[in-house]
């Protein structure tokens, strides 16, 4: 089998790149370890920044997103029993975010690739890139019980933190940066009316909480929990009781509860691998970096990588210009680290750290008070939340 671009990973990053390249006449093949149903069962982030939404439109897969997605002009931060609003649209000159579940976004991309006759191979095992520092890289894998080989010009690693792509880079050529936070997010998805039309980030001495949504009939809520907790430790009733404790009284009084249709605990981690290129291998998304979900940067940072890769590959194939490929790692990492800084700052501002001293807790109070006393500070938050320019 031969193609121009071999993409390892059939999640939203790999599928979006595949769709964008296809529209420019660049042949590609996507290799995915799991079934389509498994990929679509993963409940992940749903806040899309301004630039990501535009990229979906450029890929020709935004019709349902634009029809069903929730456009949000702002969000609220709750603290000390009160709430204050961050006016994203007003602070950024009209930019907004779209709340649209990753599952739905991924389904749209799958449907588009199928309609275009794109090659997306599922249940692919033993994937291994080879000859990455030559002009003729290839990928070996097993599919339907047979050993196969995919020859390509470039290999794109969109296979996540635990995938093979980053592990294919020699350790002496890779530098990794990591911070593991001492807590996780317990998330519950319920078929209930959201408590608020906009997201509410809640800071509380018992721990952080977030009121989010997927639609007007599907709500997503989170509470900060110790890393030692498991899903079995939290019944639905216990979750709802604790969430109400952490919300302002007026919000808690309006909270509609119901059976969870999905419940999971996600540990919080900051991670970056440098560089994001090794020979003809390019890393994108979670294969190269992970952020805490507090600032809604995870999926959006991945889309940023795809933006740079897409344009670099188009320049290579259509103009013979390799400048974008040569500068990919540098450009992508510059934006990645800004996303890391913002996510770290939001996490530090809003969470209760078990080891925090009284001094550090006072600094948190002061940081939050300063944020709402300064138009410029709020503007910086809003600018980062809706997405920095590519």
Unreliable residue runs: none
Secondary-structure-based class equals alpha+beta
Beta-strand content: 25-35%
CATH class of the largest domain: Alpha Beta
Mean pLDDT: 95
CATH superfamily grouping of the largest domain: FAD/NAD(P)-binding domain
Please explain how this structure is put together.
- By secondary structure, the protein is of the alpha+beta class.
- The protein folds into two domains: 5-72 and 97-178 and 269-349, FAD/NAD(P)-binding domain (3-Layer(bba) Sandwich), CATH 3.50.50; 182-268 and 352-386, D-Amino Acid Oxidase, subunit A, domain 2 (D-Amino Acid Oxidase, Chain A, domain 2), CATH 3.30.9.
- The chain is 38% helix and 28% strand.
- It contains 13 helices and 20 strands.
- It has helices at 12-23, 36-41, 50-58, 63-68, 88-91, 102-115, 164-167, 236-246, 249-254, 298-319, 323-350, 358-371, 375-386, and strands spanning 5-8, 28-31, 47-48, 70-72, 74-79, 82-87, 97-99, 119-121, 125-130, 138-143, 146-151, 154-157, 175-190, 200-203, 209-215, 218-226, 260-274, 277-278, 281-283, 289-290.
- The chain has an eight-stranded mixed beta sheet with strand order 6-5-14-15-16-13-17-20, with helices on both faces. A six-stranded mixed beta sheet has the order 8-2-1-12-19-18.
- The longest helix is centred in the C-terminal third of the chain and has 28 residues, at 323-350.
- It is globular and about 60 Å long.
């Amino acid at each position: 089998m031969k193609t121009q671009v071999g993409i390892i990973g059939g999640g939203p990053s790999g599928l979006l790149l595949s769709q964008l390249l296809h529209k420019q006449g660049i042949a590609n093949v996507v290799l995915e370890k799991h079934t389509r149903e498994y990929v679509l069962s993963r409940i992940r982030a749903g806040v899309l920044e301004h630039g990501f939404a535009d990229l979906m439109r450029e890929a020709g897969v935004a019709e349902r997103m634009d029809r069903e997605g929730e456009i949000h002009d702002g969000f609220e931060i709750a603290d000390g029993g009160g709430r204050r609003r961050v006016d994203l649209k007003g602070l950024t000159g009209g930019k907004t975010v779209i709340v649209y579940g990753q599952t739905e976004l991924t389904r749209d991309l799958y449907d588009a690739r199928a309609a275009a006759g794109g090659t997306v191979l599922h249940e692919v095992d033993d994937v291994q890139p080879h000859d990455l520092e030559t002009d003729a890289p290839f990928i070996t894998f097993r599919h339907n019980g047979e050993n196969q080989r995919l020859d390509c010009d470039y290999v794109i690693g969109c296979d996540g933190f635990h995938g093979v792509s980053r592990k294919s880079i020699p350790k002496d050529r890779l530098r990794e940066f990591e911070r593991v936070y001492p807590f996780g997010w317990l998330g519950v998805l319920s078929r209930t009316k959201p408590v608020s039309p906009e997201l509410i980030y809640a800071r509380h001495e018992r721990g952080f909480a977030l009121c989010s949504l997927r639609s007007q009939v599907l709500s997503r809520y989170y509470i900060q929990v110790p890393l030692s907790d498991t899903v079995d430790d939290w019944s639905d009733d216990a979750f709802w009781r604790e969430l109400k404790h952490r919300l302002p009284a007026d919000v808690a009084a309006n909270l509609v509860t119901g059976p969870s249709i999905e419940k999971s605990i996600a540990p919080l981690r900051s991670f970056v691998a440098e560089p994001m290129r090794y020979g003809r291998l390019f890393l994108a998304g979670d294969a190269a970096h992970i952020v805490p979900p507090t600032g809604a940067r995870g999926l959006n940072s991945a889309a940023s990588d795809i933006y740079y890769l897409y344009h670099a590959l188009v320049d290579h194939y259509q103009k013979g210009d390799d400048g974008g490929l040569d500068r990919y790692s540098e450009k992508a990492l510059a934006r990645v680290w800004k996303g890391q800084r913002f996510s770290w700052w939001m996490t530090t501002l809003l969470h209760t750290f078990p080891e925090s001293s009284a001094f550090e807790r006072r600094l948190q109070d002061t940081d939050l008070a300063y944020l709402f006393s300064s138009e410029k500070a709020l503007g910086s938050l809003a600018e980062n939340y809706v997405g920095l320019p590519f």
